[in-house]
Design goal:
five-stranded antiparallel β-sheet; 3 domains; single chain; 9 strands; alpha+beta; 9 helices; four-stranded antiparallel β-sheet
Length: 282
C-alpha cells in the first residue's frame, strides 16, 4: 500500500475497533471548515458547545467530525482529505478513553511516581498514557501535562505497550479547578466578549498595545508547535492583563486573527483561550 493511502488504512482499522477517527494535516491539526461552515455559518456545532458528531458531510469540526463509519472514511469529501493527511487523529472520549499527554521528561517522571501504569505510547517529545474511561479535556493541568478525552482529539501513533487500566481518580482530580481566593468576580474574562474596557490599573494603554503586538509577532514567527505557541501566548497575555479589565474584544480578535493566520481554527483559538483562563483560574 502506498504511503499516501496509509493514514486512511490506519483510520479504517481504528474505526473497525470502535475508535472515531479524523484526518490531520501538516502540523497535526484538523482540516479547516468547508465554505458552508466557515465562520460558524452552520450554527452552534462548530463552537463545540454541543457534544456529538458533526452534521456536516465534510471534515469540518475536528473531534466532532471523527467517525467510525467506513463508508464516510472512503467517500468524498473525506477521501480527498485522507490523500492530503499526514497522520491520523482520533477522539479519545468518543472511544471511552482518556489520554494523559506528557510533553517532556519531567512530566513523564511525575506520572511514573503519581499515576498507575497503563498503556503507554511514545510521542515525539514525551508519552501518551491511555486509560479506559472518559472525562472532560483540560490543557496544562500541570507543567507539561494535558488531558485529552471528550471534545478533544489526539494523534494516533502506534498501538503502544502495557495493559490499559481504568481511569484513576488521580487523573480526574487534575481537571478539578479549586476556588481562587484572590479572584474578584468583576474581573472575569470571557471569549470573545470583552473582559472590561477600563484602563489597566497598573499598566499604561501603550504597554498593553505593545504586549498585544508582541504576542501577535510571537505567533506569526512560530514555525512549529503552533498549538502550543498559541496557548502559551494566550496564557502570557491573560496572566498580565486577565484580571485588570483592560482587554477588549478588539484585543482578543487581534490574537485570534494572528493564530488563524497560522492555520488555527476559530474553535482552536476559543479552546486555547478558555484553557488559558482555566489554568489561571479566571
Amino acid at each position: 500500500m502506498s504511503e499516501t493511502l496509509r493514514p486512511q488504512h490506519t483510520a479504517l482499522s481504528l474505526a473497525a475497533s470502535g475508535v472515531p477517527v479524523l484526518p490531520l494535516r501538516r502540523g497535526k491539526v484538523p482540516f479547516g471548515n468547508c465554505p458552508a461552515c466557515a465562520d460558524n455559518a452552520c450554527g452552534g456545532r462548530p463552537n463545540m458547545k454541543i457534544p456529538g458528531p458533526c452534521r456536516c458531510p465534510g471534515v469540518c469540526h475536528a473531534w466532532a467530525a471523527a467517525t467510525t463509519d467506513p463508508t464516510v472514511i472512503v467517500s468524498p469529501p473525506w477521501a480527498a482529505a485522507w490523500r492530503r493527511a499526514v497522520c491520523v487523529g482520533y477522539h479519545p472520549g468518543g472511544a471511552g478513553l482518556t489520554v494523559v499527554d506528557l510533553d517532556d521528561a519531567d512530566a513523564i517522571a511525575w506520572a511514573r511516581t503519581t499515576l498507575p501504569a497503563t498503556r503507554t505510547v511514545p510521542t515525539t517529545r514525551g508519552e501518551h498514557w491511555i486509560y479506559r474511561g472518559a472525562m472532560r479535556s483540560v490543557n496544562a493541568v500541570r507543567p507539561g501535562v494535558d488531558i485529552k478525552s471528550t471534545m478533544a482529539y489526539a494523534r494516533y501513533l502506534v498501538p503502544g505497550t502495557g495493559t490499559m487500566v481504568e481511569l484513576p481518580d488521580a487523573v480526574r482530580a487534575l481537571a478539578v479547578k479549586g476556588p481562587s481566593p484572590a479572584r474578584p468576580a468583576s474581573h472575569a474574562v470571557t471569549v470573545p466578549a470583552r473582559s472590561g474596557g477600563g484602563q489597566c490599573p497598573h499598566r499604561t494603554p501603550a504597554y498593553l498595545d505593545r504586549g498585544i503586538a508582541m504576542a501577535e509577532q510571537r505567533i506569526a514567527e512560530t514555525r512549529s508547535a503552533v498549538h502550543a505557541t498559541v496557548y502559551r501566548t494566550f496564557l502570557a497575555v491573560l496572566s498580565t492583563h486577565g484580571r485588570c479589565g483592560c482587554l477588549t474584544d478588539a484585543h482578543v480578535a487581534r490574537l485570534f486573527t494572528a493564530a488563524q493566520a497560522k492555520g488555527e481554527t476559530a474553535r482552536h483559538c476559543a479552546d486555547a483561550w478558555t484553557n488559558a483562563r482555566t489554568r489561571l483560574e479566571l
